[in-house]
Amino acid sequence: MKLWLKYLIGALLGIALSFAVPAASEAASSALAFITEVIVRFGRYIVVPLVFFTAMTAVNKLRESKMILKTGMWTAGVTIASALLLTFIGLVAILAIRLPRIPITADKAAAPVSLNINDLIRALFPSSAFETLINGTFLFPAFLFACFSGGACTGDQAAFRPIITITDALSKLCYNIVTLFTEILSIGMIAVMCSWAIQFRTIVAGGTFVPLILLLFGIFILVAGGIYPVLLHYICHDPHPYRVLYASLCSIITAFFSGDTNFVLPINMRAGKESLGIRRRINGIAYPLFSIFARGGAALIVTVGFVVIWRSYAYQRIPVSNILWIYCMSIGLSFLLGGLPSGGPFIALTVLCTLYGRGFETGYLLLRPVAPILCSFAAAFDVLSAMFGSYIVGVKTHMIEHHSVQHFI
């Protein structure tokens, strides 16, 4: 059975189970939250070792073949371009379609939230490099350590051959563990989906946020079914661009219902290798970077969310200068969410409201009830960009072995 079908069945069972769980029961809610947390932790369990050993091996092979510069430029270019494009699409859509105003809430703001850039920089260079392997949330420090290590091993191939061999074996070992874990997680999707479905029914019960959810769903269909395949066709001259969308189904399902970019990263890397045929030296570089930086899905959600907040507070048109500011700030904040694999888009929206000021400091409270769904859409957009973007990098660096659709996982 295809992996995406297993996850879809798990999701459908989770929906059915959500009608049997008494939502009003505090004990049932606590038990479900605990089970969901354990499943997410299980999904993240092998992420850091997988990223570290695979990135170290990938950098070593890329530097040895003198492909590291070309790979890095294509990865950075596609990553940034996807963030710019998704933010632009979200901005055009929300400006063109005027949603109903959201009633002003009387909720009180919690403690101010900020994205501390100084702390992010400190996390990159802790007192010991081994501390980078402890943080299971912010993956970039471990990824950076892996790049340094992999690059250093090319200095003396004879001396470091044992290390390269061990690292390569450990990378393959982690991948085999991921293969087992991703099969087991299809069962865990029942609990994840059950928790998500209960939240979703609560959110849409009043009908206030249904137009916003429908708009985001329409944008996702447009991007996934139209814009990305068309771009892939012209950039890579691929006659069958929808193969990439088909290979992304399992990742999209997992990302949307978990809202966690680290949780879905192993599934991305497995689908990239076994379905799309992307070689490990690209797999180990592109997918982690797409999960860490320039998360265009988050930028899109922040842009759409802030315009919705503006129109709920004010009746006048948004000045062009403010539109440009929203666009640029949303993209900028998307580069700072690497340490927030889940919930990051809403925190970025909170920060944007605070930075804008002028009475909008607590505007994010209007969208706080729908925050889980917003983060779900952001994760789905980010995974879509990661799958299409990594495929483009693989094609442009000639490090891909095309598989027939029948052999996709």
What does this protein structure show overall?
With 409 residues, the protein is mostly helical. Helix content is 72%, strand content 0%. It is built from 16 helices and no strands. Helix 4 packs parallel to helix 13 and helix 10 (249-258) packs antiparallel against helix 16. The longest helix is centred in the middle third of the chain and has 48 residues, at 157-204. The model has no long low-confidence stretch (mean pLDDT 87).
Over all CA atoms, what is the radius of gyration? 21 Å
- Sequence of secondary-structure elements: HHHHHHHHHHHHHHHH
Low-confidence stretches are none
Cα distance, first to last residue? 8 Å
Biggest sheet details? none
Number of helices: 16
Basic shape: globular
User: From the helix content, strand content and strand pairing, which structural class follows?
Assistant: mainly alpha
- Give the strand content: under 5%
What is the number of beta strands?
0
Measured as a percent range, the helix fraction is over 70%
Averaged pLDDT, please? 87
Short summary of the structure?
The protein contains 16 helices and no strands.
Notable characteristics:
about 400 residues; mainly alpha; globular
Give the arrangement of secondary structure elements.
Layout: H1 3-18, H2 26-44, H3 47-64, H4 68-96, H5 117-124, H6 140-152, H7 157-204, H8 210-236, H9 242-247, H10 249-258, H11 261-274, H12 280-292, H13 296-313, H14 320-334, H15 344-356, H16 371-396
